[in-house]
UniProtKB/TrEMBL annotation:
InterPro entries per the UniProt record, alphabetical: Peptidase_S1_PA (IPR009003), Peptidase_S1_PA_chymotrypsin (IPR043504), TRYPSIN_HIS (IPR018114)
Entry-linked SUPFAM superfamilies: Trypsin-like serine proteases
One of the GO biological process terms: proteolysis
Protein name as it appears in the record: Peptidase S1 domain-containing protein
Domain of life: Bacteria
A GO term for molecular function: serine-type endopeptidase activity
Length: 237
């Protein structure tokens, strides 16, 4: 039986002349040695990367990765593990049809990380629904079809798998960003003893997570790379 805990992990990236850092979450996808994440979770200056799956007690040295041209998606692959088969230990693509507005989803990842050994990592399963779909533009220049989630996406959750609540193995997107909006609760002006006027405004911040959704083109892209990566020869570890 598929367990998302065993297929979800974190990316530990090492840049030149710096200590390793956790850059986001990821998930085994299509094969045990292929991982999907958000493109921005792979730093431009990364020298080496490791995927750690804490619940499974496994780690993978990433051999190669590829970012999508426009969407905030990336695939990474490592040498295949010895043994297996691992048929129930990776996510698969969800249905071609887009989940309807109000559809429930699950997001599983590591929004807080205390160390690089997995001891202090807190995995969280979040549940929400899709509020709207729209074209999203990131600060880095990426533009993609996005789903707005009814839950926030705190740091570290980026790259996490977004799956259908009624079919947890069916991946429909990846957590990509967090949007903050606010509502003004109260506003008033006062004048101090010197006659200086000032205004105080009370606001409520509302955060929404953004998922890079699978579309026909991104699904074809991931399928092509998964087939390529899973057939790549490598020494078993």
């Amino acid at each position: 039986m598929f367990n998302p805990m065993l297929a979800t992990g974190v990316i530990i990236a090492k840049m030149e002349d710096s200590e390793p850092i956790v850059t986001g979450s990821c998930a085994a996808y299509g094969a045990r040695n292929v991982f999907i994440t958000a493109a921005h979770c792979i730093p431009d200056d990364v020298a080496a990367a490791t995927v750690l799956l804490p619940a499974a007690g496994q780690n993978f040295s990433i051999k190669q990765y590829e970012r999508h041209e426009t969407s905030d998606l990336a695939l990474m692959w490592a040498d295949p593990l010895a043994g297996g088969p691992f048929t129930d230990m990776f996510f698969e693509a969800g249905p071609d049809a887009l989940p309807g507005l109000g559809s429930d989803f699950l997001a599983y990842g590591f929004p807080s990380v205390d160390d690089l050994e997995g001891e202090g990592m807190t995995a969280r399963l979040m549940k929400g629904h899709f509020q709207r779909y729209f074209g999203f533009s990131e600060l880095g220049g990426r533009k993609f079809f996005a789903g707005e989630m009814s839950i926030p996406a705190p740091p570290g959750l980026s790259g996490s798998p977004v799956m259908l609540a009624h079919s947890p193995r069916s991946l429909v997107g990846v957590v990509a960003a967090n949007l903050d909006s606010y509502t003004t609760l109260s506003s008033f002006e006062e004048v101090d003893s010197s006659g200086k006027q000032y205004r105080e405004v009370s606001k409520r911040i509302v955060s929404y997570g953004i998922a890079a959704m699978f579309t026909k083109s991104t699904a074809e892209w991931t399928e092509r790379l998964v087939q390529q990566f899973s057939l790549t020869e490598g020494s078993a570890q």
